[in-house]
Amino acid sequence: MADAWPGIFYHLFFVFLLATLKAKVHANLTHSYGIITRTEQKQRHKNGCSYFEGRWVYDDSYPLYSSWNCPLLRGGFDCQRNGRPDKKYLKYRWQPSACNLPRFDGRDFLERYRGKKIMFVGDSLSNNMWLSLACMLHFAAPDSNYTISQKGLLSTFFLQEYETSVTWLKNGFLVDLVHDKIGKILKLDSISTGHQWLGVDMLIFNTYHWWIHTGKSQTWDYFQVGRKIVKQMDRMEALKIALTTWAKWVDSNIDFSKTKVFFQGVAAVHVNGREWGDPTAKGCDGQTEPMKGPKYPGPAHPGEAVVKSVISSMAKPAYLLDITLLTQLRKDGHPSVYTGRGSAFDDCSHWCLAGVPDTWNQLLYTALI
């Protein structure tokens, strides 16, 4: 028995050494790639960490998927296929200041939402996020049969193996836009299409960009509140009234024990280089790197304050994906002239895919785990 002790000792020492090395390797990987452990996940609120404060860091393991391998992706968001020559914008990962962000796990996401329905409701920025999530899920399950369909304003991506549907319902204002003999009226205190939002397991709402349109891009003629109809109104005041109507509808009609409710937040545009200290910049055209952060040098976003004010007043607040800062820092992330519509069209409000909206879905996933 005494002769066996040296062997036992060396075996236990080897096991201890192996466990120590494994822990160190895991810690280094966690630090290097921004991977969050389950323990960190549970502690994030205790430590006062905000996933929405941080900076963009270069990460060679990005992007999370290739746009060339996403058959769902076509049109103005597919910047590489549309001829964008640079690729560095694909390599940035959002790094919160006080913690790490979990890497998106598409298989885990699909298992959690097996047999369930996810619906995006909003404008073309909702479409941006919807397509991003569809590409991320397709990448996670490339051999799973899928269908993609459109009926009226509803677009649906359905993964047959998981029986998971991810839909986008186009709705730029959330409140009613009606046609009347005097013209198109935006009814700020009325929602008649809310029944379309019922019966799903997750809702991600969005509205903002259509509220600031002018000229030919403006899709209404009048505002209405109650019986009062006006031609002009402060846009942020109109937005706040409409969002308050939406918030009351959600409070009254959504069962939060069955449906998770998110608000996508307000994404930044980059049309004025003076905001980030480059008066010679022609909007986002030619921008190839993000701003360093963690603060945006330009003015505060007016829509962000309105959204936060309304959501904080809800009886059952929606989860705000507060994407304003992280998009403000990404002047390089827009399609610019690479939309497939020619060099005369410069898009500095939507986002290339793969790209920034993938982080919005990473934040969505983080809120679910």
Quick tags:
369 residues, alpha/beta, seven-stranded mixed β-sheet, four-stranded mixed β-sheet
Describe this entry's structure for a reader:
- With 369 residues, the protein is an alpha/beta fold.
- It has 8 helices and 13 strands.
- It has helices at 5-33, 38-43, 106-112, 124-140, 235-253, 302-312, 324-328, 356-368; strands spanning 54-58, 92-96, 117-122, 146-151, 154-159, 164-170, 176-180, 183-187, 202-205, 222-225, 228-230, 260-263, 319-320.
- The strands form 3 sheets. A 7-stranded mixed sheet has the order 4-5-6-3-9-12-13, with helices on one face. A 4-stranded mixed sheet has the order 7-8-10-11, with no helix packed on it.
- β12, α6 (302-312) and β13 form a beta-alpha-beta unit.
- α4 packs across α8 (356-368) and α5 (235-253) runs parallel beside α6 (302-312).
- The longest helix is centred in the first third of the chain and has 29 residues, at 5-33.
- The protein is globular, with a radius of gyration of 23 Å.
- It starts with a helix and ends with a helix.
- Mean pLDDT is 89; it is low at 8-46.
Strand order of the largest sheet: 4-5-6-3-9-12-13
Query: What distance lies between the first and last C-alpha atoms, to the nearest angstrom?
Result: 51 Å
Helix percent reads 25-40%
Give the tally of β-strands.
Answer: 13
Would you tell me the structural class of the helices and strands? alpha/beta
Q: Summarize the main sheet.
A: 7 strands, mixed
Q: What oligomeric arrangement do these chains adopt?
A: single chain
Radius of gyration: 23 Å
- What is the number of helices? 8
List the uncertain runs. Answer: 8-46
Overall 3D shape = globular
Q: What average pLDDT do the residues reach?
A: 89
Strand content: 15-25%
